[in-house]
Write a structure and sequence with these properties.
Elements: H1 6-13, H2 25-28, H3 31-34, H4 41-44, H5 55-76, H6 81-84, H7 87-117, H8 121-143, H9 153-160, H10 167-181, H11 185-198, H12 201-214, H13 218-234, H14 238-247, H15 251-280, H16 290-308, H17 317-323, H18 327-337, H19 352-361, H20 369-381, E1 419-421, E2 424-426, H21 431-439, H22 441-444, H23 450-455, H24 464-470, H25 489-498
Helix pairs in contact: 5-13, 7-8, 7-9, 7-10, 7-11, 7-15, 8-13, 10-15, 11-14, 11-15, 12-13, 12-15, 14-15, 15-18
The structure holds fe (ii) ion (2 copies).
Length: 499
Amino acid sequence: MPLLERSAWYDIARDTNWTPKYVEVDELFPPDQSDPYGIPVAEWETFDEPYKVSYREYVSVQREKDAGAYSVKAALARSSYYEDADPAYLSMLKLHYGAIALSEYAACQSDARMTRFSKAPGMRNMATFGMLDELRHGQIQLYFPHQLVSLDRQFDWAHQAHHSKNWAAIAGRHALDDVMMTRDSVTTSIMLNFAFETGLTNIQMIGLSADAANMGDFTFSNLITSIQSDEARHAQIGTPVLEIMVRNGRKAEAQQAVDIAFWRIHRIFAILTGIPMDYWIPLEKRDRSFKEYMTEFVGEQFERQLLDLGLERPWYWDIFLEDVGTHHHCQAAATWAWRNTLWWNPTGNVGPRERAWLEEKYPGWNDTFGKAWDVIIDNLVEGRTERTLPETLPIVCNMSQIPICAIPGNGWNVKDWPLEYEGRLYHFNSEIDRWVFEQEPERYRGHMTLVDRFLAGHILPPDLGGALAYMSLQPGEMGDDAHGYAWVDAYRETRRAAE
Ligand SMILES: [Fe+2]
Ligand SMILES: [Fe+2]
């Protein structure tokens, strides 16, 4: 049977809007789900996705992608790669799978909202594929690490992390609930498809898959590349949405949505990606520094895309460019210090060679972040490991839900950005986190951070042990230094030689 070229029928096939006779338009497309900006339907009908695909093509390409990723996994299933892998690399996998697998599944709802409620037929069509993509990403990232569950209990924990009251899981959910789960379909698309997926997933996907390939983990590297190829398509939903917003006098609202989402997800990725890249991956296997990735793959590309669309850089752009060189260093030391609250084993891994690399990539590292590690190293060399463990909880940001911290040592700039709202005092890690809160206080005001819950008596006994029980972390699951502090040996030897 002869088939028409796709271009001959595509535009007609997705021209699926009609004029409702039995219900009002606002009943079919409730504004708070479909479009609170009141843009005319005729404008939404101009939505023209840059990447066009038919259902027949979609399922055939997706089948090939799955076959590729699953056959690499099957081929390598008998290798003992994971049994012999560097424990810090395994921590990267535990963190990744715990944070990402069910977030992908949650993103099905975001795409489903666009599929049902968007007034743009082309967007509904694309979002249907996006929804199927995210279902695949959820399934494949639950299935692949399942073989690792028998390796140690932390991999089991990674499977349940998303449903837990662990602080890192709360931080992830708070950001994703805000960006993906609780907004109308237009704002969701701007925040998720554009700010998150177009702006930031490259760093997670391309950076991590390069590091994984260098580590010889071709199963994970292929998996990530396979997922990224879907993201690259459905992320494009955001571009025509923004064009329509800008053309219809809604540039300010679009800009605000971009600015909120980009910052919120950046702060999560600083922990999720920044720390493994610059601390856990062995020196000779590192592809680029986190800052180099963020500057080249995120900063420059995202800036160009924003300007092409007639938008501006986020107002905090200069702070962001500074932040990619600092914040993950703060969190590397902070999360290592609170390692028993994690479901993965971080490694300090700041031996003399690693410090030289950090100093080269981040001039001034030794004088700032290095000073905090000096104290830790002194304690470990002297056998006072207990002094490197926390006795209570850190102050947590009321927006990012991660510990409030900043540059230590000679660059000391640790400060709180407080705000009093309706009689309650909130604490923020940066002026940007506080600005996000101020944009819509009623959205955020009721949430209690882990520390708020601690102070309100929800966590008993009110000590670190109570907090660990609240987070359901049992002995054997709590994090410890991935290398058993072996990276401190070099300092011990230098000091012994000097004596
Ligand atoms: Fe995805
Ligand atoms: Fe996605």
